[in-house]
Here is the input.
Amino acid sequence: MNHVITSLLSCALLATALPGFAQGPSSTASDDSRSAHADSLFHQGQSLLDAGKVEAACAKFEASEAWENGLGTLLHLGDCYERAGRSASAWHAFLEAEAVAQAKKDSVREQVARERVAALEPKLSRVVFVVPSTSRVLGLSVQLGDNTIPAASWGTIIPVDAGPQRISASAKGHHAWVMNVDVSRTEPREYRITVPRLDPMPEPRASNRRSAFRTAGVVTGSVGIAGIGAGALFSALSKSTDDANTCARGVIQCTPAKSNTSNSYSEASTVSLAVGGALLATGVTLFVLAPSPDNQEKNSLRVAAHVASNGGRLQLEGAW
Here is the structure.
């Protein structure tokens, strides 16, 4: 009997408290665009609720509350949630309304919110996230739907709405874990969810890339050494040809001149030494900077050949 009287009193108080805010946010803020928008949404929600369109009404109240956090809007939102069967959301809205009313020293609506909170308590289903120490990998994130559950709330009771609930856990470098829980609509229950240790993803294998870089470095360096050797040989042949074409001693009028063969050897020597040196430098770079497992994504190396009418060059480009 006392419970019935209390419920009737709560309804009466709500009826007197909510119409006072039926005009939306405070009229003194009517020039403010946020208040005007929140007021419009509030009235739309109230009309939808009167028409029995509960879900649509709740969406309007949510939008109004997002634009302007009002005590009356919170009370209407909580009432709408409860009609929609979303007990946990209603409980949270009334709990927030109680805190706002207390801050505003609005004892009437504070009492309304407190009684609505107390009435919903026995109807709530709850979830407890159990996260063993072995499951607490670095960067672990536990989520209930789209909401992240902070580590401080692990192991505590969290009210949830009835119906399907998606629970997930994720961490960088690990496979995500997901499970679905169908929260009972008929009777309140407590669900203990143990978060397992996430399976680590296989680390990318860098050994093959490293081996390829080093092999390329050895091959390129070897070709470079061969090029330098060829350049030295061509240089020697060029000098030998020059010596064979010197003038006889005592002939002052004679002017030594390089033959075409000497010029060819000299040019070949220059090109071979230049290309060989570049290839050797490239090979050493490839070998030394072969990516290791911990920086394989950072290393980037390119060897570009540039050819022109007056010669050519090899260009080494990269980032480490």
